Amino acid sequence: MKSLFPLLFATLFYPSFVYAEEPSIKSPGADMANFPNGSFTLPQGSAYAETGGNYNSKSTYSSEQYNVSYLLRYGLTDNIELRLMSDGYTFVNDGNKTKGISPQTFDIKWHLIDANENLMLPSIAVEFGTQTTWADDAFKESTLPFLGLNFDNSLPYDIALNYSVGFDSQLNANGNKEYLLALSWAFQRDVTKDVAVFVNGYTNTLAGLTTSAIGGGGQWTLTERVAVFSNVAAGLTTNTPDVYGLLGFAVALF
Question: Is the CB of residue 188 less than 8 Å from the CB of residue 195?
């Protein structure tokens, strides 16, 4: 009977943790480069690691902030992706010079529908998850769930349109949970085989308090496994940081 255990283990667990044969950062590409998340998921067994240095200038309701964010992605199946993300190490330039590790967020992306280019219909994915209380005390909040839909369209002149709409949650000044409508978008075009440029923006609305920004950036695929990207945006409301900046890279691990 003992000889059956390896076979049973392989039967139960191997299909979900098989390794992809040819790791590539080009398909489906990095999610951190622009504001919206894509509708595409990693192939089964593939894994990405994405990270970047972020800067947010001071706004009406927030202090200047620096952080090193990250996103870890794993293809559980060809259509379901497991994700772990965080703002990572964070420094807030407030009176206390607050610093530490921001909350960890667990996330699942499920690719639902492929695009129909003849009918100009987008590919669609649903994404849901929750921010946890796994953080340093200075940044610990509550479990904050979110739900969104991600879309990708192919437009004329080889332009790709990517947009996301959904509901996010946060704590208000009284510590009560409240929900906001979140919209983000990006128009992207390849200028060479390995270089793409984009314009992007976002708008988050909650009880008359709106944050919104618009900007642009680019992505350069260095090798089959590695891409670097940057993004700079300007705030459009008094509640939004005047300047947002990102410089990061993504690696296809396996």
Answer: no
Rounded Cα distance, 29 and 26, in Å:
5
Residue 21, in any domain of the structure: no
CATH number for the domain spanning 55: value is 2.40.160.40
Asked if 57 and 64 count as a contact pair (C-beta separation under 8 A), the reply is: yes
Query: Can you give the pTM of this predicted structure?
Result: 0.89
What mean pLDDT do residues 41-55 have?
A: 98
User: CB under 8 Å to 201, separation ≥6 — which residues?
Assistant: 35, 184, 185, 186, 212, 213, 214, 215, 233
- pLDDT at residue 44 greater than cutoff 60: yes
Q: What is the pLDDT of residue 207?
A: 67
pLDDT surpasses 80 at 33: yes
Give how far the C-alpha of residue 160 lies from the chain's centroid of Cα atoms, to the nearest Å.
Answer: 17
Residue 80 lies in domain: 30-252
Is residue 25, in this structure, part of any structural domain at all?
Answer: no
Please list, in sequence order, all residues whose beta carbon lies within 8 angstroms of the beta carbon of residue 58, skipping any fewer than 6 positions away.
Answer: 64, 93, 241, 242
Q: How far apart are CA 95 and CA 242, in angstroms?
A: 20
Which ranges in the chain belong to alpha helices (H)? 4-13
Give a yes or no: residue 225 inside a domain. yes
Q: Summarize pLDDT for 201-222 with one digit per residue, the tens.
A: 999 998 668 999 999 999 999 9
Give, rounded to a whole angstrom, the gap between the first and last alpha carbons of the chain. 34
Domain tally, the chain: 1
Task: Establish if 8 belongs to a structural domain.
Answer: no
> Average pLDDT in the 192-197 region?
97
In angstroms, the CA 232 to CA 218 distance is 10
Which residues have C-beta within 8 Å of that of residue 8, sequence separation ≥ 6? none
